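[PROTEIN RECORD]
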Amino acid sequence: MSYIFIPMNIDCLEIMEKWKFNQYFPKLDMSAYRKSYEDGNRILSGPSGCEGFAVMDRESLIGLFEYYPDIDGKPEIGLALSPDLIYQGLGKKVMDAGIIHLLKYNQYDESYIYLTVSAENIPGIKFYMKYGFSKYKEVKNGEEEITDYKMKYKL
């Protein structure tokens, strides 16, 4: 399966804003992308100025892949699949394609890939652990007093 990664735009944003997940992770926070659009940008940036990419399978929007160049001194990624596609075995394929895209697009030269996941996102944690990520740090999300896990994956 070959996926296409396109820079976030308003059409993809409007679809993703409607995605509803589960009790662990009710919806994506797309407010930074929305603000980027309202500021007049055609290619939208996400939280902390990250680069967001809509993941396409042919003509269908199936996910979001994000690249944060510097979070706490380390580059991080973010991944979300359309809620209709979770638990169908696509996560690994999309993560594989996202990592390949990251290595090519950003000339990524780190030994690890990093991400942050809410401790409340049990399905996400299970997915990342199964993929091969390991927890290396717990942090408090200051705004909501929720614990987040910092995770890393050896390339």
